Amino acid sequence: MDDRALFSGPPVCIVGNINRDVKVQNVPVSAGLFEDGESSVPPITETIGGGGANSACAAAALGASVRFVGKVGSDALGQRLKQAMEGHGVQTHLARDPHAATGTTVALGLADGHRHFLSCLPNNETLCFEDLDLGALDGCAHLLRADVWFSRPMLEDGNLRLFSEARRRGIATSLDLNFDPCWSSGNKAEIAKRKQLLRETLGAVGLAHGNVRELCEFTDSPDLATALKRLTDWGVKAAVVHLGARGAGYWVDGKLAIEPPSPARTTVNSTGTGDVLSICMILLHARSDLSVQEKLRWSNQVVREFIEGERAMIPVI
Length: 317
What we know:
Strand content: 15-25%
CATH superfamily: Ribokinase
Strand order of the largest sheet: 5-4-1-8-9-10-11-12-13
Order of helices and strands: HEEEHEHEEEHEHEHHEHHEEEHH
Number of domains: 1
Radius of gyration: 19 Å
Low-confidence stretches: none
CATH topology: UDP-N-acetylmuramoyl-L-alanine:D-glutamate ligase
Helix content: 25-40%
Number of strands: 13
Mean pLDDT: 94
Largest sheet: 9 strands, mixed
Number of helices: 11
């Protein structure tokens, strides 16, 4: 089955971060990284960045009709990102803020498989509900809210207002529970407050997405089974679970279905794999002719092809 037959359908809308990614792959791991000096690395690339923008570009590459809602600065970088996304087939609805520069993330892919991100994202941090073009929801079947932790105004009330609007229109909703940078450096009281603000939106969320570490941290759980039960108790209907070397999982009605990974022979792309997996499952979500296992299997195959560089899903800028 080709991509358009598999993944096309009613439009999806994605609200999230957009920024420049400066990607450095296969960085040698040595003590020298923490000392004065210089290290030679493979090619450094500039691409579209931000979980939401990555997801939108991946959806477009799969032949889906996709709208992206976000915010950029009134600067040359913001215009470059807009043109790159639209050239890739994404319909953009971008607020332009003359007071917030368009941000950049340096994505380090270490040779030992670990990753680290260095980010400065003024445009995404100031995103608020009033910046959102709700016309982008017209005719959509699914809304994905990505990068949920980066904007305080959205965290305080914007996310709930957005999900409520989507549900009022009969649109299915997804929430990507990605890593909150505050978990690494914030105080316990602030972390607890931020978690509670997001938990208050879960009654309006149909599908949650995240890896084991993220889901356990968000729910204050010792293991995945506890995390998934707590998500259900708080109102989430189902969850897509990123299981790394174990593959991908889908939690619904108290049961977790797991599909083993499609192993990659080489690694060209180490960032954005979770975004690709989630958007595949969103695009397949309403298909009643496919079983959960088949949806996971197709999604894992696309992820493998993306990792190996066979699929050009995230445009270079």
